[in-house]
Hints:
Elements: H1 11-25, H2 32-39, H3 53-65, H4 77-94, H5 98-101, H6 110-123, H7 130-153, H8 159-170, H9 175-182, H10 193-213
Helix pairs in contact: 1-2, 1-3, 3-6, 4-6, 4-7, 4-10, 6-7, 7-10
Amino acid sequence: MARGRPPAHTRDQVVDAAIGIADAEGLGAVTMRRIAQQIGAGAMSLYTYVPDKDRLVDLMVDRVGATRTPVELTGDWRTDLLALARSQRSLMLAHPWLPAALPNRRLTGRNMLAYLEQGLAALAPTGLGGPAKLEIVALVTGLTATFVTAELAGSTPVPEQVALIGEAVASGEFPQLGAVLAEGGQGSGEPDFDRLAAWTITGLVSQAIGSLSS
């Protein structure tokens, strides 16, 4: 029996091309037509490798997950979860489309499961149950994605915004805000990721542990 022609491309080539487009132009620019142009194939032929764009994005997310900076767990859940959050942040900054791609994804690829495995291992010393650990890992990922989204958007207040806030505070209608700004609450520069992540991690885990004994 005669065999059919071998595929002209591979799934990896399709996924890599999609990642390159997303890195340069955003996730919205990723279409089967654009990928086909990139690799020199017919747009319809790409469905040989991926059934639809949703599955393609799943593969893209897992593919870039392989480049995440490895984390050596120390046995201290605060240190380890913060290190995992840092590695996620670096990955998201390298691939700015990633925060928007993560929600509602079917994270079944081995690289994303490896991150989840490390997150659960980091929380093992806490004695928390499986559902609580899964929720904490998801919430830390959500915080990281939100922070990076704002970071990439350049959310630092512009001079006009600062002037408007100053004018409002000068009216005396916002005494609590005025007191915070008087302490330097707006002049400390960009938000510090490590500080915010550490607060969140400590608060989430401590609250979960506390609920075990209540």
